[in-house]
């Protein structure tokens, strides 16, 4: 049992980091093990949760507090990402959402010092040595990065700088994000963030 690690995960669904006392708690235990799966038709080693692949569903609603006790039976560390989001057909209805800000994200590909740089609104993101949220937590954000280096409605996206690209967006607001691609190839986007949930 020496390899058994215990991780307690408190995952707050639906864009809130403040748990209200009246919101119900749901408790789960997940045993993470290796097992044989055949997602591509060929048996291979995979990671199972409670013997299942894909893992179990969590049936919950907005503001539920979800506590998951994760027992890692693997011989390696294991990372979960939490992609919870409000259900657009349930809690939120399109057309009734009051959008407080519109951010246009324009991607570009530019050669900078001979190197191809992909950028958003003229900024090619650079991960800082200190993790961004850690810098914020210790009140040292100003020593590590600048907020809002990009504009919500960029005019010039081909002059590219390389720096951490961090936006300050007000908690619990609905922001419309327009993805604009002037390149000749398809771009795939991955949207996630700290207390940020995509609803469409
Ligand atoms: C998880 O593993 C523990 C220890 O082997 C076992 O007691 C428990 O029943 C398992 N739970 C589930 C949901 O499989
Ligand atoms: C999910 O939970 C709701 C509310 O408790 C219940 O009405 C519904 O039947 C559940 N759905 C599933 C698939 O378990
Ligand atoms: C949007 O704003 C209107 C007017 O203030 C209000 O009546 C409505 O409830 C708001 N909608 C949401 C989803 O908060
Ligand atoms: C983020 O923006 C809000 C609203 O403009 C402001 O009050 C707050 O100080 C900003 N926070 C940071 C860390 O810049």
UniProtKB/TrEMBL annotation:
<dbReference type="InterPro" id="IPR045087">
    <property type="entry name" value="Cu-oxidase_fam"/>
</dbReference>
<protein>
    <recommendedName>
        <fullName>Plastocyanin-like domain-containing protein</fullName>
    </recommendedName>
</protein>
<dbReference type="GO" id="GO:0005507">
    <property type="term" value="F:copper ion binding"/>
</dbReference>
<keyword id="KW-0732">Signal</keyword>
<dbReference type="InterPro" id="IPR011706">
    <property type="entry name" value="Cu-oxidase_C"/>
</dbReference>
<feature type="signal peptide">
    <location>
        <begin position="1"/>
        <end position="21"/>
    </location>
</feature>
<comment type="similarity">
    <text>Belongs to the multicopper oxidase family.</text>
</comment>
<dbReference type="InterPro" id="IPR008972">
    <property type="entry name" value="Cupredoxin"/>
</dbReference>
<dbReference type="Pfam" id="PF07732">
    <property type="entry name" value="Cu-oxidase_3"/>
</dbReference>
<feature type="domain" description="Plastocyanin-like">
    <location>
        <begin position="31"/>
        <end position="84"/>
    </location>
</feature>
<dbReference type="GO" id="GO:0016491">
    <property type="term" value="F:oxidoreductase activity"/>
</dbReference>
<feature type="domain" description="Plastocyanin-like">
    <location>
        <begin position="130"/>
        <end position="199"/>
    </location>
</feature>
<dbReference type="Pfam" id="PF07731">
    <property type="entry name" value="Cu-oxidase_2"/>
</dbReference>
<dbReference type="InterPro" id="IPR011707">
    <property type="entry name" value="Cu-oxidase-like_N"/>
</dbReference>
